[in-house]
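Q: BAH domain-containing protein, please. Structure only.
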Amino acid sequence: MKAAVGDELVIESAHEGEARRIGVIVELRNEDGSPPYVVRWLHVEQETLVFPGPDAHVMPKKQEARLTTEQ
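A: Structure for BAH domain-containing protein:
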């Protein structure tokens, strides 16, 4: 798993009826983009250090946002 600052980390629910958790990666601990990540969780506005498990995946930040910030 590789990520960049601004990507979303999505953790799927392990139990039926529970919502998935979505957060924004705000800090990388490794230069190559591998875990762990510091994530700001959107549902609680809290930051935590995360070692993602098999129920997690990274969604790259939107291309439109990258183009806007690069100009």
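A: Brief note, in case it's useful. The two ends are 28 Å apart (CA to CA).
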